[in-house]
């Protein structure tokens, strides 16, 4: 039997507890959507004021050199690399995750010219599939997407497969793939692997170099707390960097952009994957958030995330066992990422009723209530309070109101 007191004790013993004060969290809100848009770090406010007022306002164009705006994509890439197990010189930050999927998939297909199959999952986050579909159509060489069974990805691999493109942690049910085993399986049939770390970076330990990953992408605005529309990152393992051909061959990926030569020559290293001018303000916000996360021990983050997951499941069955909720995804905690989802036929209005009471999660079609568990600023008692509010909504039927059934553009 869990009580609010036992959870308050856990908070008192939590080594990550001091990080909560580093975020701006509104009163009356229990924020369970940091997996979709991380909250605002307090330090970001002042940093952005400085970048706007001093670096842009005073230093003007001199800032590209003076304040090293030009080095931002690589400097920040190396920092994010430390969070996902990539040694320096293999990551850059820029563009969106969708665009980075496109860039890396194009590069990978070019490295396997005899092969025509891209293996992914039907329940992958759709943009990854859409980008693959668009690229295949544009190439016009007969590339096809093959959907693997999530329980048996290796069964879909073979010597016709150019690329295995998977999201490490599924956005709906939090199922986590064994990155080391699947990378090895793909390599043993001659395929390359692109890992999408959208729901992994900043949420749990990742070891890109150790598992021998070829390529990876991920978001800046989810668990990394970089702010709305924060740029994404991409990773190209050292051993492939001389070989990757940038499909979006922009000037900042050129070997000598300020020579203004009319012919494209790719830069050495991962820098060639840069395209155009970086969003400096967004990058500055992301850098504050990544610096903050680098202060925390990722293994403590993972430990607390798993404990929060267990507490959430236990509280749902203890307090809300009779309301028709079903837990989705693996029951083995180690096979999960850092969010939890409940399926319910009335998922949409229930989530809107929660949000109206300050418990912010999100809804994923067709029937998923999704909650991000973010150890840096979430307390154990927050889960207790959130589940009590869920119980109240279900007991009173408060969710069954017309205003909660109107679908907004973003769910
Ligand atoms: C959130 C997410 C994206 C988002 O892509 P954007 O281009 O940043 O909008 C891509 N892939 C996965 C797996 C995601 O979860």
Task: Please characterize this protein's 3D structure.
α2 packs antiparallel against α9, α4 (72-83) runs parallel beside α9 (280-294) and α5 packs across α6. The mean pLDDT is 97. This protein is globular. The strands form four sheets. It has a seven-stranded mixed sheet, with helices on both faces. It has a four-stranded antiparallel sheet with strand order 11-12-15-14, with helices on one face. A two-stranded antiparallel sheet has the order 1-3. It contains twelve helices and 15 strands. Helix content is 36%, strand content 13%. The protein is α/β, with parallel strands linked by helices and 411 residues long. The structure holds pyridoxal-5'-phosphate. The site of pyridoxal-5'-phosphate has 13 residues, from α5 and α6. Pyridoxal-5'-phosphate binds next to α5 and α6.
Write out the distinct hetero groups bound to the structure: pyridoxal-5'-phosphate
Q: How would you describe the oligomerization state of the chains in this entry?
A: single chain
Main sheet summary: 7 strands, mixed
The ordered string of helix (H) and strand (E) elements is: HEEEHHHEHEHEEHEHEEHHEEHEEEH
| Mean pLDDT, all residues | 97
State the share of residues found in helices, binned by percent.
25-40%
Widest sheet: strand ordering: 4-10-9-8-7-5-6
> Terminal Cα separation, in Å?
34 Å
What coarse outline follows from CA principal-axis ratios?
Answer: globular
Put simply, the count of helices is 12
Integer-rounded radius of gyration: 22 Å
Uncertain runs are none
Number of strands: 15
Please report which band the strand proportion falls in: under 5%, 5-15%, 15-25%, 25-35%, 35-45% or over 45%: 5-15%
Name the structural class.
alpha/beta
